[in-house]
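agent: user wants the structure for N-acetylglucosamine-6-phosphate deacetylase from Kribbella antibiotica. delegating to structure tool.
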Amino acid sequence: MTTFIGARLVVDEGVVDDHALVIRDGLIEAIIPANAVAAGDEVHDLTGYTIVPGLIDLHVHGGGGYSFDDPDPAAHQQVIDFHARHGVTTMQASLVSALPADLDRQLDALALSTGDALHGVHLEGPYLAVSQCGAHNPAALRPPTPDEADRLLGRNGLITMVTVAPELPGVPEFTRRLTSAGVVVAAGHSEARAPELNAAVDNGLTHLTHLWSCQSALVREGPWRLPGLIEESLASTHLVGEIIADGHHLPATLIEIARRCLGDRLVAVSDATAGAGMPEGFRYRLGVIDCEVASGVGMVVGANAFGGSTTPLDGMLAHLHQALGWPLPEAVAATSTRPARVLNLADRKGRLTPGHDADLAVLSPDLTVGATMRAGRWIHNALG
Ligand SMILES: [Zn+2]
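agent: tool returned. relaying tokens verbatim.
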């Protein structure tokens, strides 16, 4: 049994002082008043720190110079370790659009790397709109087929999320097959208008890939205003939407609009690339697209466009709380509690509550990560 005393605890909507967090056998056993801690327990004093549930990142391409699309489990472990140093205890590996043979090679390798830390693979394509491809290789984009759904499902749960452009032919059927098997299907990189989005939603689509990034927007046809995917996203009543809260992709005004529209259906994702944690000028690839770290964000080389982010999820938590003034529990909800729900892990992750996995991030007063615990074991510890 391990007991942490002295730290502030973020427990659901509140911040709790003068309480101890008790860990046993990889689980949170209890949260008790500090004066109830029994002598003789293994007690650690974390005065000055804040403990939050381990962060959960739905959208990770890479980090620390390594990428999940490298078909090498050693590279995957480097990415997982990089994000562990930033408080992340569960993540999805996001793959940009690739040609079928390359994608198969990447998935074969990732199948060796999934486990508790790497929950599964998010295919961010190739079923995307060419006109909204962003930093995806246009030559790799294609509509989905029923065969392809079967092949993805044949990978025994490896694929946990797929982003599609709802307007592509075959998407409703593809969506139905995947969501029936428990895969989360998201709309993104898309020109969809309401009818196409609704057809996918009717077949189980529940998620929206990075709001405002590669989403169609309002157009005027004669006197008529036609909402795009972003307006349909914001007006939706059940869909969960992602924001890349790195202080670069979205200005504060747009994040506030998303917050008011989606409420507790808004999640922050890093969209981190191999450039995360790397110095200015560091070059990396998103699929076949050359990108570099420039002014604290990823940029496509030779184009005036973002190529993913370089900010891990702890940086987004800090941005939401410190720069945008969100209450800390709300920022924690967006980076842990709500993503746990998306991955169907809410019964054991994303909250500090008895019975949940002992997945913790220990934050310094400036919200940098001092230590990270998964299932009761330190996976990063710089507390000294
Ligand atoms: Zn991405």
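agent: one observation worth passing along. The first strand starts at residue 2 and ends at 5.
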